[in-house]
Amino acid sequence: MNPKTKKILIIVAIILVVLGVFVLLYQSAGKEAFIRTALSGLTLGSLFFLVAGGLTLIFGLMDVLNFAHGSMFMLGAYIGWQLYTNPTFIFGLLPQILAFAAGVTLTSTIKPYLIKWNLPEKWVKALPKMGYFVALVMAVLSFVGLDIMGLADTAMVAVTTTTVGNPLAEISVQEPLAQYWFRPVLMLLSGALIAFASSKPGNKTEFAPNENLFPKILVPIGLFVLAIGATLIRESAPVAILLMDGNWRFAIALLVSILFGFVFGAVVEITLIRPLYVRPTFIIILTLGLSYVIRELVQLLWDPLAYQMVRPPQFAQLGKAVNILDWLQNGKATIDIAGVTFPTYRLFVIVLGILMFIFITVLMTRTRLGMIIRAGVQDPQMVEALGINVKSVFTIVFALGVAMAALGGIGSGPFLPIQPLMGDQYQTQGLITVVIGGMGSYVGAFLGAMILGMARAFGDYFALKYSLSTAIAEASTVIIMVIVLLARPQGLFGKKE
Amino acid sequence: MNETNNTSDLLVVDEIQTFIGQFHILEGVSLSVPRGSITVVLGRNGAGKTTTLKSVLGLTPPRMGKIIFDGMEIQGKRAYNIANLGIGYVPEHRAIFRSLSVLENLKLAERKKGDFHRHSEFIFDLFPDLQRLYKLPGNHLSGGQQQMLAVARALVPDNKLLLIDEPSEGLAPILIQQMMEAIRTLSETTTILLVEQNFIMASQLAERYIIIDDGKSVEAGKMSELVNDTELIHHYLGASIKTRKELEALHES
Asked: What is the torsional sign of CA B1, B6, B11, B17?
């Protein structure tokens, strides 16, 4: 039999088996229960994929198993939730962060000049160390006296007040500009010093490409302007955002989480992971440690409590929408699907998962970046030899993966309790999903996530129906993994090594 | 080898030393590649020929020594920076991207958007097979087609130098002939540095040679002189010429 017909036969067989399973489930559960459970399964599968999509993308290209992915999912939820309920925290810290970034991004502009300096050997060694030290001191100084806890704390006040009464009264904890101005200035200087130190002045063995520097200086200038803007709107922006329509606020929260995830991912990749590519085991330990650091920081700021994010109005009005149109117009909390009442927000989670899958598919098959990623999975060295900066592609892919996790976090925010451990369960599920789907295959990850979600939902349903232990549903995940790995050790869509 | 100051050389490698992990692979390789010529690197298996090419491109950056390409020192630069100066690389074992189609393989190599379209006629003239196959994924190609794709991929319009590693490896004789024709055509517009085990092919193509032995460059000169120097060939390249007959055939040609 030639391999093509064999492949088609296998696919047909799988489809028949899946159909058979669905028919059996339909028969034993009945129509209504079947639809309800299947939709729950899709919701869970979607959540799993929101985590697994980024994981598999990162693992496929870089062989990095990111054990901090769940924490980044959680962090995305916190950041989006903060913007949604009390933007004071984000806007209070933004000027310093932007000013610091403006300083650091000066590196590529000043490096070509600094490395040509003629300095005595002693200074070449001492200057970077001194630079880093002074930069650290400045950064610490710029935060002295800033009430970060207060900024974060108001969130809790705001949560209780958004539901009853006026939240705006609670949010003016920002310092006046006359006391505040030195913080971003110090951060700018600190960043610039780091740029100075990391470009190693006087070090003749360093290399700087001979390029046009003009486009490169635009980045720090742009960030600087943004930092000034952020300083000025520190107090007014949170008020403006809270006055906004809840749906728009939620949309902005989604965007802010994505952006935050992207930047955070890029920073983590450049500063922590990049030096360790030659030691893959260290990366695993590093990401594991990072996940604890993130979790502890979040607990420090917001206490190890669970918060419930208020659903945006579009998903919150009491009542049941008869169809999609009705829901679009009136924004009800539940919707009627073939006779089953189903929460609209869960449908939104399903759509989010599908949109993410479409995004990854388009990215991988239709764009140049996707082409580079597919080529880089096989042979990053050869991609580099074609004149492509593989290091920066790694950074972009890692940042994209983290952005996806952060989107997953805020996307599930109104639906899961927001707490420091919210990502852990989904990270484990995500890792299993990636293994089932085949390491690095996004199609596999999507199918794997849906299979796991379905198994979980139907497991729960039948456990309830026949009064069995609910552990069956939880065990289903591992059982499926074992079966898949026994039949296809490389995963559903994995390639044989 | 006192040609380092000669400005007609496109590439000058001066006493480079390269380590891979803790292994000292190149212990002093020098060579120069004049513009518009084909220069071949000869030597036994494991002598360091491939590492020499990789060191030039920065894939295995040399720890010591100098590399000057087109009047600019390039040792220590990142590989993608070096490649973007105008160096095309055809690796050994034809490392084409198997999951990408022929077209995608070629497009990936673009330095500027549209490079491939401006160049496609030239590429398809050189390798007519590729035009027929351009939608197929790389892993559906035969060995010879993969090798052609690997060469075609390195043909970006502004490449000044091509580094080609063992183009004849594992090819049928008729395909070797075709590959030789292609390389000859390419040499009309580009300078080529070739690594080749097949001495017959190397001697017919190249104008100059460099012999690397045990990580050091030991001999260099004109190909026409090497062909007559049986002793030298035997001393350094014994393993790569399989039979006495081949050598005699060479002498007659």
From this structure: positive
Please report, for chain B, the start and end positions of each structural domain, with discontinuous segments joined by +. Answer: 9-95+158-252
Average pLDDT for A56-78: 90
Residue of A nearest to B154 (CA): A386
Q: Are residues B104 and A371, on separate chains, in Cβ contact within 8 Å?
A: yes
Task: Name all contacts of A288-295 with Cβ < 8 Å and 24+ positions apart.
Answer: A288/A67, A288/A68, A290/A67, A290/A68, A290/A71, A291/A67, A291/A68, A291/A70, A291/A71, A294/A68, A294/A71, A294/A72, A294/A74, A294/A75, A295/A71, A295/A74, A295/A420, A295/A421
Rounded Cα distance between A252 and A453, Å, is 28
Min Cα separation B128/chain A (Å): 23
Contact A374 B99 (CB under 8 A): yes
Q: Do A378 and B99 touch (CB under 8 A)?
A: yes
Interface of B with A (CB under 8 A): 57, 59, 76-81, 83-84, 89, 91, 95, 97-100, 104, 107-109, 111, 153, 156
Query: How does A290-311 read in b/e, with b if 16+ C-beta sit within 10 Å?
Result: bbeebbeebeebbeeeebebbb
**Average pLDDT for residues B18-35, to the nearest whole number?**
84
Type of residue found at A296: E
Position A180, amino acid = Y
CA pair distance A453, A41, nearest whole angstrom = 5
Q: Identify the pLDDT of residue B223.
A: 76
Min Cα separation B96/chain A (Å): 8
Confidence at B5, pLDDT banded by 50, 70, 90: very low
Total domains in chain A come to 1
What is the average pLDDT across A263-274?
92
* Alpha-carbon Rg for chain A in angstroms: 25
Closest A-chain CA to B163:
A385
Quick check: is A334 in a domain?
Answer: no
CA of B88, closest CA in chain A: separation in Å? 7
In a domain, A127, yes or no: yes
pLDDT at A294: 94
- Does the pLDDT at position A298 exceed 80? yes
In this model, does residue B3 exceed pLDDT 80? no
CB within 8 Å: A209 and B89: no
Lowest mean pLDDT across A419-423, B189-193, B237-241: B237-241
d(CA B27, CA B20): 12
| Fold type of domain B9-95+158-252 | Rossmann fold (3.40.50)
The C-alpha atoms of residue A291 and residue A487 are separated, in whole angstroms, by 33
Residue predicted with more confidence, A180 or A395:
A395
A161 falls in which pLDDT band (50, 70, 90)?
Answer: very low
- Asked if residue A385 belongs to a domain, the reply is no
Q: Hey, which residues does A334 pair with through a beta bridge? A: A320, A343
Query: Are residues B100 and A384, on separate chains, in Cβ contact within 8 Å?
Result: no
Q: How far apart are the first and last CA of chain B?
A: 28
d(CA A190, CA A200): 16
Say how far residue B50 (Cα) sits from the centre of its chain: 9
Tell how strand A332-337 and strand A317-321 pair up: parallel
For residue A453, the distance in angstroms to the closest alpha carbon of chain B comes to 30
State whether A378 and B97 contact (CB < 8 Å).
yes
Task: Give the integer Cα–Cα distance in Å for A179 and A109.
Answer: 32
pLDDT at position B4: 44
Give backbone dihedrals phi and psi of A311, rounded to 5 degrees, phi first: -70, 145
- Find the domain containing A193 and state its range: 76-245
Structure confidence at residue A74 (pLDDT)? 94
Interface residues on A facing B, Cβ-Cβ cutoff 8 A: 205, 207, 209, 368, 371-372, 374-375, 377-379, 381-391
Using CA atoms, how far apart are residues A380 and B175, in angstroms rounded to an integer? Answer: 29
State the complex-level ipTM: 0.84
The answer to whether residue A91 is domain-embedded is: yes
